Prior knowledge:
Layout (H helix, E strand, L loop, with lengths): L2 H20 L6 H30 L2 H25 L6 H32 L2 H21 L1 H6 L5 H91 L1
Amino acid sequence: MNAIDLLKEDHKVVSNLFDQVRSTPDSKHFALFKKIKAELDTHAHIEETVFYPRLKKDGKQDLVDITLEGIEEHRQVKLFLTEMGRMRRGGDEFEAKLKVVMEDVEHHVEEEENEMFPLVEDQFSDAVLKRLGISLLNRKQKFVQANPDVAKNLANRPRMMKTGMLTSIYETAVTAVEGMLGMANGKNKGTASKTSSSAAGKGKAKAAKSSSNGSASAKKGASSRTANKNSKAPAAKGHSAGGRGRSASK
């Protein structure tokens, strides 16, 4: 699932909540608002921390302009959500603010899906959008984990939509893990090869050194024996000469 698919799915969930507001009595709206606020807080957070910064950084001027407009629209919606979140119950003021929020969000979604997203698809590759999708999902998970109130109020995704998202996430995760394992195995093999080569080299060096030491010892031993033999030879000769000398004197 790429970034645009993920954001569009969020839009569908919020749109479904808006439909529930319009088809239920006012007494049900405050409970629905909690779900709407959780969805919009999460959606705005991942757009403002992951998606919009990338569009401003690498997008062309037309995309940058509409992104800046989207940020301002977020600001207005979040202001109303904060005010409504402080209310203990519904009422005329609450209903008025809820109506404005719904209209603003629907306008914002229309601009994103009809103007911003087509520009994004033109200016960014599929690979980049897939990586952005993973980043958005990771940021969403961290935000939800860090905000228990948001977690408990998030709307249930439609079964088919949820299944499709989980399948896509699973496939992406498997691919990423396989890639990391492949790199790790490559590094391990390289390290093992280097270690083996190093060990073999050290073994050869040690063997050569041992052989050299053995040769040196052998030579030293041979030299010592030769020296001892030579040192005995003169003594024997001297004794013989002495014997001849005594015989001659006789």
